[in-house]
Known about the structure:
Distance between the termini: 27 Å
Number of helices: 3
Shape: globular
Structural class: alpha+beta
Number of strands: 2
Helix content: 40-55%
Strand content: 5-15%
Largest sheet: 2 strands, parallel
Number of domains: 1
Radius of gyration: 12 Å
Strand order of the largest sheet: 1-2
Amino acid sequence: MLPGASTGIGLELAKEFVKNGFDLVVIAENDEIQSAAEQLRGMGANVKAIQQDLARFEGVEDVCSRIAEVA
Length: 71
């Protein structure tokens, strides 16, 4: 699985969203998602970080329920 928003293209896309005034929910299965979220917060965004594997059905269900809680 790709690392999601924690590194590489995913993180660079997240930075572009922050630069354009968006708050974010960022998701990746690795621990690096927390440091990526801190970096994005440092750019001025409100960021919710979720460490989850979206390749698994249970991971998708978990993310959907967490997002529903804050929406």
